[in-house]
Amino acid sequence: MKYAIPLTVLCLFMTGCASQKQNDPIQETETPEETVYEYNGNPLMFRPQDENAVYLLEDGLSLQFKGSMQNADCCEETSCLVYDTVLLKGKSETELELFENRSLPLNSDTGYMILQKMEPLYFLSFNDEQQYDNSCACVFDAEGNILQEFDHVAITMNTVYVNQFLVTYPRGKSGNDCDASQMCPYEEVWSVTEEGLEYGPLMSGMSAQDTEKWTNALLEVYPDLRAYAADPDNFTETIELDGHLCRIAYFGTVQPNGWFTRERTFAVAEDCSVIYEYNTAEDTWYYEEH
Fold it and tell me: Is 0.70 topped by the overall pTM?
């Protein structure tokens, strides 16, 4: 019987601990309060800035972005806001995994989001500032149905026709004449109409070989252009100068908000015989023989 008291005390102690454990409140991680934005339908470019942001698109349709401050490789400083979850809420709730499962996550330091209403549909994209061809996008309707997704592409918005955008596949696209192991871009123009989505190849009258030829000719005469960013739409516009049919190319700077600022303009003759640079102040084209 000499062990009776210690055992009794031990049992009471263990019972008390179990009881205390059951009564302790469960610690839950608090969800940050929602920051709500009412989207007015105009093209919107933004970076992640709220840990729990909700964009109200119309009655019964919204986008929600959830994230936190994290130490990630994409951050310019020690940490930045990174979105882990992107939800499209319509008739049902859809997790946009295309935007979540990325080597470069949606963050407040690198890249930017574009939200644009293309009547009657919506367009959402994340544009990578580090890699021109590592952007993603999706098109969805007013009920929250995803109609089309794009990944590992370059997206160029049409500033004249708001219901159009250009998709560039840097290594070609299945079904065209490009070997996917090579760098031979294939481009499509996508349009949103009342009937839905339409697309077709960019009819620019040029090939990847032409683009490379004109670029090399231009850089040979103006090697300092390597320090500038090139407009993704280079060589798709034409102009006739001194009887030469020329392709126009723009070079400039990508601004912190993601917009490309044109600073220098050139025209390369299709046979590369003459290269012009435009002088804005004098409204004159000057040329260099090549």
Answer: no
Closest CA to 199 of 176, 167, 171, 177: 167
Whole-number Å distance between alpha carbons of 43 and 160: 12
Sign, CA dihedral 170-171-175-178, equals positive
**Cα end-to-end span (Å), the chain:** 109
Q: How far apart are CA 128 and CA 70, in angstroms?
A: 18
Q: Characterize the bridge pairing of strands 93-95 and 238-241.
A: unpaired
**DSSP helix, strand, coil percent of the chain (3-state; round to 5):** 15, 45, 40
Provide the pLDDT for residue 276. 96
Q: Which two tokens stand for residue 72?
A: 């990630």
Q: Which pair of structure tokens corresponds to residue 253?
A: 């700077």
- For the chain, the average pLDDT equals 83
pLDDT value of position 183 = 53
pLDDT at 95 over 60: yes
H or E stretch covering 169 = strand 164-169
**Amino acid letter, 201:** P
Q: Which two tokens stand for residue 116?
A: 């644009």
Q: How many whole angstroms separate alpha carbon 86 and alpha carbon 97?
A: 7
121, 197 contact by CB (below 8 A) = yes
Provide the H-helix boundaries in 169-245.
Answer: 208-221
Higher pLDDT, 23 or 73: 73
Alpha helices in the chain (DSSP H): 4-23, 97-100, 208-221
